[in-house]
TrEMBL record:
Monomer. It comes from Mola mola (Ocean sunfish). This is Inositol-tetrakisphosphate 1-kinase. GO terms for cellular component: cytoplasm. Residues 120-325 form the ATP-grasp domain. Its EC number is 2.7.1.134, 2.7.1.159. The keyword Isomerase applies.
Amino acid sequence: TGSPMSGRRVGFCLSDKKRKRMNLHAFHRCSLTDPSLGEFFLSQIDLARPLVPQGPFDVIVHKLSDVIVEAEHDSRSQQLLANFQSYVAAHPGTVLLDPLPAMTQLLDRFASYRIMTKLHNSLRDWRICSPPYLEIHSVSDPSSIQQAVMAQGLSFPIICKTRVAHGSLSHEMSLIFSEGSLADIHPPCVLQSFVNHGAVLHKVFVVGDQHFCVERPSLKNFPSGPCDRETIFFNSHQVSKPESSSDLTAVSRIVGVTSEAVAALVKELRVQLGMALFGVDVIINIQTHTLTVIDINIFPGYEGVPQFFSALLSHIESVLDKQTFAGPQAVGPSATSTALSTSRTVDTRSLSDAARDNRLPLRFCSCHPGFQMKHNSCFYFIVEEAEEMVTYSCVEVMQIGNSQNSRNSLHTVIIIAQNIY
Ligand SMILES: Nc1ncnc2c1ncn2[C@@H]1O[C@H](COP(=O)(O)OP(=O)(O)OP(=O)(O)O)[C@@H](O)[C@H]1O
Ligand SMILES: O=P(O)(O)O[C@H]1[C@H](O)[C@@H](O)[C@H](OP(=O)(O)O)[C@@H](OP(=O)(O)O)[C@H]1O
């Protein structure tokens, strides 16, 4: 009998660059050698090929930032994204790490900075905040930008970042030291008060309910207030990668972060974002010692976190355990309960075959793609084989998938079980 803990099918849908950086081979080795974890089958998903034959998947781990950003203007990327979305909608039992809408919002700094600003209220007790900022939607006359900067309470120096938060151009930034230099910006962009923080960046890498903190170089302190210095143009990867060394990154004083505050921040963001794989960039204001959030990243590199692979695998395992117990959550709008006429007619033969072949692990229950599970139902499936017969305990069988499907798929039996305990 197959154990529900075994054989997780994990698909990775990543850009070539991300795949190489992640080193999926090492990941695979980790999945094989960590005895505390169940069995994982890892595969790479090729977005350019039909997805159904590449599946099924219990989980898809993805970073589709390139495709999502390119889909704004490129029809091939639109098609790839649409294919992926329809696969996901048709397979509600497949867990997506992370949900597309949740991660898409972080590709837009206008959206992510609004989220960061909300933290100020929700985490008031921890004195966590993000710097004042201003959205610049389009080219406007310098005096109206200057007025908006004043009205929003921004202080010089000001850091200017592109609106789009992904791709090589998104790391091109500038430091602006006076009102006159606001002419150097290229909308759409955000302007944000620069906060002196002793040139230390605290990267908080989140994997489900675990998080890891890593220190990185960062921009050095600058005198507060406007001055006649020329705008400094820089690439964020020159200043905040582990190996970064630049005139802009001299460490002056290291100020630590309290682990309780970081834990509270991570907990709050997990709820706000509805994501499991993300990074938060934090600096400590050297004057006020306030923990200040400056960036939230989708599925970051986890550089300096050797535990990343095992943390990811145990997160996947815990997500799937919860799902097996509670049943898949949301399904697409096309999935209507009318598709499930209440029926107690059971194709016992196909079910019995499936159970005997171990294609239906005991106590496994899943949902046929495209059907809707009853909200808040518990799903539980107990099969007892007596000779050729199969009996059910405490389950109301709504529909058994047709025999063609039941050949290869665990997702063919639909059982709505309620009040089973
Ligand atoms: N408000 C700020 N005050 C002080 N320094 C800042 C501020 N915002 C950004 N920085 C500095 O600029 C760097 C880049 O900023 P940010 O993290 O927003 O860029 P990014 O390109 O989105 O980064 P990532 O590579 O993590 O995606 C930070 O690591 C930090 O050194
Ligand atoms: O782990 P940190 O230091 O946060 O670095 C990440 C950057 O912050 C991201 O900007 C990278 O993604 P982009 O490809 O969007 O630049 C991201 O690239 P990746 O998706 O290839 O890992 C990382 O380099």
